[in-house]
């Protein structure tokens, strides 16, 4: 779907994905995905569970190799990149993982310091100061000495955010940053992510299936399909365009309608059969 | 199965690079991490190795004394204890202890890091997991296995001495001189070599299985069991092959 509005052409595409295909065995998890992310965007990838959001993100950060297709980050093709170039590139983006992925063997402060000690020549005192500042920004002052196992889920996410932003990267990836958080903490993490990334002018790519988050932070949205549309972009556009999108699966997803679990009847049958243990031809579910 | 072999040899290839090539390209070994692993993998295994070796030494001395007494040849007890300890039992028993204590914990730790995305997080921060996690564990294991084996030999001999001294009424000097009579320096060298090879096998198997865990917490549990089983089998087979090569 073309997303050309005049002001977009003036901005640089930070990420260009072209005809990305990834198969796991016979399963086509990504099946010809193409999109561009422009500077300053908060780009949201949404879609049902198992539709390939995390897989897509792993290709963008270069920890998975595509079956075919091209991915350019900052204009550089990463699918054929050597490890030295990749190492340099990785200094320019941060990633916030679904589980936080803080190193359990280090304290919170050491986790945040890690990108600084590995990628800069700053001396220990300066790193200490930066870490204190980063922890303060995410409201974790005084928790730096704790191990990740000693803090709550929301605090872990915020610590992980501080680590992802430690180098003030121009590009930040985030996989379901609010999964497993209560609505208030979700809003806090969303707001923090938005405020901190805007402050350093970073472009953000977020995976989420939380509809509140999608429309709260997204400036550009794509939705990946499930069922027969597995691995394809079902819809793309601004929040307003997505809200008004005619595709029934998109509306079902936005409105949280369980009848449209997989966005089609075949998917619905499969869902009832495999998850509810019902004969697909029986009407028991409707008559009961 | 073939997939597991492919993953194993891929790890070994990558390990060779990070051990011998990367240090010349300004990506040296992380000594701090290595020392931490030496403590975790090696030093913490000392009490258990000691207890095991002591009981083995005692049992060896008792069994051989019981048999040799029939021939009136209990003077050979110290030699029998020392040669079987040095040539076979110390390296093997130490390997079994290290597999159960340290190999399993390496797999469990790496597996947990894998399923909680910590390994991916390292990669994304451009910190190669090979240099951060694998090389330190490898070095620690290869350094500590021979040391633990020497230690086990001493403790095992002490166990044999307990029986020799208190039950067979040998003097300490008699026990030591007869214990040394039947072993050569080369035996000790081979023992060290064996335990070094066991260390390489144990740590590479543990790391390879740990790094390739999938399926959440349950997967970590399964992988840990598999790591212990595969390491035990591999070490026993390797021991038979090495004994055939060096002593037969
Ligand atoms: N390493 C893998 N091997 C095999 N299948 C995988 C692998 N990673 C993901 N998949 C499959 O790809 C699909 C998409 O997974 P994922 O990207 O995690 O979905 P999402 O993040 O959208 O919930 C799932 O069906 C999953 O089983
Ligand atoms: Mg996911």
* Number of β-strand runs of chain A: 10
CA-to-CA gap between the ends of chain B? 33 Å
The low-confidence runs of chain B, each spanning 5 or more residues with pLDDT under 50, are: none
The major β-sheet of chain B equals: none
Gist?
The complex is a heterodimer of chains A (288) and B (248). Chain A is of the alpha/beta class and 288 residues long.
Key structural traits:
heterodimer; A: alpha/beta; Rossmann fold; 3 domains; six-stranded mixed beta sheet; four-stranded antiparallel beta sheet; 12 helices; 39% helix; B: 248 residues; mainly alpha; 9 helices; 85% helix; binds adenosine-5'-diphosphate
Could you characterize what this model shows?
The complex is a heterodimer of chains A (288) and B (248). With 288 residues, chain A is α/β, with parallel strands linked by helices. Chain A folds into 3 domains: 10-92 and 170-184 and 197-245, P-loop containing nucleotide triphosphate hydrolases (Rossmann fold, 3-Layer(aba) Sandwich), CATH 3.40.50; 105-168, no CATH class; 247-288, no CATH class. In chain A, 39% of the residues lie in helices and 21% in strands. Chain A has 12 helices and 10 strands. In chain A, the strands form 2 sheets. A 6-stranded mixed sheet of chain A has the order 6-7-8-3-9-10, sandwiched between helices. In chain A, strands 2-1-4-5 form a 4-stranded antiparallel sheet, with helices on one face. In chain A, β4 (68-73) and β5 (76-77) form a beta hairpin. The longest helix of chain A is centred in the middle third of the chain and has 17 residues, at 183-199. With 248 residues, chain B is mainly alpha-helical. Chain B has one domain (2-14, 29-241). Helices cover 85% and strands 0% of the residues of chain B. Chain B has 9 helices and no strands. Chain B has helices at 2-21, 31-42, 46-71, 77-115, 118-124, 129-166, 172-181, 185-211, 216-247. In chain B, α1 crosses α6 (129-166), α3 (46-71) runs antiparallel to α4 (77-115) and α6 packs across α7 (172-181). The mean pLDDT of chain B is 94. Chains A and B meet through α3, β6 and α4 of A and α5 of B. The complex binds adenosine-5'-diphosphate (ADP) and magnesium ion.
């Amino acid at each position: 779907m073309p997303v050309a509005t005049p002001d977009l052409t003036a901005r640089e595409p930070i990420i260009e994905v072209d005809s990305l295909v990834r198969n796991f065995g016979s399963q086509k998890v990504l099946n010809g995905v193409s999109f561009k992310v422009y500077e300053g965007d908060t780009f949201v990838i949404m879609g049902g569970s198992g539709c390939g959001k995390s897989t897509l993100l792993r290709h963008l950060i270069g920890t998975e190799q595509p079956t075919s297709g091209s991915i350019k980050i900052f204009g550089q093709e990463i699918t054929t990149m050597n490890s030295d170039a990749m190492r340099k590139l990785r200094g320019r983006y941060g990633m916030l993982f679904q589980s936080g992925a803080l190193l359990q063997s280090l304290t919170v402060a050491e986790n945040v310091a890690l990108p600084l000690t590995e990628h800069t020549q700053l001396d220990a005192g300066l790193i200490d100061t930066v870490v204190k500042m980063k922890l303060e920004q995410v409201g974790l002052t005084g928790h730096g000495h704790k191990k990740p196992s000693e803090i709550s889920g929301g605090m872990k996410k915020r610590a992980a955010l501080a680590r992802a932003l430690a180098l003030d990267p121009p590009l930040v990836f985030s996989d379901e940053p609010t999964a497993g958080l209560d609505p208030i903490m979700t809003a806090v993490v969303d707001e923090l992510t938005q405020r901190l990334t805007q402050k350093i002018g970073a472009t953000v790519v977020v995976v989420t299936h939380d509809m509140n988050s999608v429309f709260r932070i997204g400036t550009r949205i794509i939705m990946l399909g499930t069922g027969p549309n597995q691995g394809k972009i079902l819809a793309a556009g601004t929040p307003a365009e997505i809200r008004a999108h005619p595709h029934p699966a998109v509306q079902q997803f936005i409105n949280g309608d369980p009848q449209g679990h997989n966005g089609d009847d075949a998917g619905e049958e499969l869902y009832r059969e495999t998850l509810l243990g019902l004969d697909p031809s029986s009407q028991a579910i409707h008559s009961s | 199965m073939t997939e597991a072999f492919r993953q194993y040899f891929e790890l070994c290839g990558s390990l060779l690079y990070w051990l011998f090539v990367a240090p010349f390209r300004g990506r040296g070994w992380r000594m701090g991490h290595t020392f931490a692993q030496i403590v975790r993998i090696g030093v913490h295994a000392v009490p258990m190795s000691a207890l095991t070796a002591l009981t083995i030494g005692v049992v060896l001395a008792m069994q051989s004394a019981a048999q040799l007494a029939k021939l009136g040849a209990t003077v050979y007890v110290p030699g029998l204890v020392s040669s079987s300890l040095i040539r076979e039992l110390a390296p093997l028993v130490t390997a079994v202890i290290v597999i159960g204590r340290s190999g399993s914990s390496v797999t469990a730790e790496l597996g947990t890091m894998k399923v909680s995305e910590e390994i991916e997080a390292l990669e994304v921060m451009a910190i190669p997991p090979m240099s951060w996690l694998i090389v330190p564990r490898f070095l620690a294991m290869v350094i500590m296995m021979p040391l633990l084996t020497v230690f086990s030999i001493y403790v095992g001999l002490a166990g044999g001495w307990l029986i020799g001294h208190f039950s067979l009424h040998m003097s300490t000097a008699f026990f030591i001189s007869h214990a040394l009579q039947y072993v050569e320096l080369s035996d000790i060298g081979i023992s060290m070599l064996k335990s070094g090879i066991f260390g390489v096998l144990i740590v590479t198997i543990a790391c390879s299985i740990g790094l390739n865990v999938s399926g959440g917490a349950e997967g970590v549990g399964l992988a840990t069991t598999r790591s212990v089983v595969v390491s035990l089998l591999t070490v026993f087979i390797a021991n038979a092959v090495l004994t055939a090569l060096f002593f037969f």
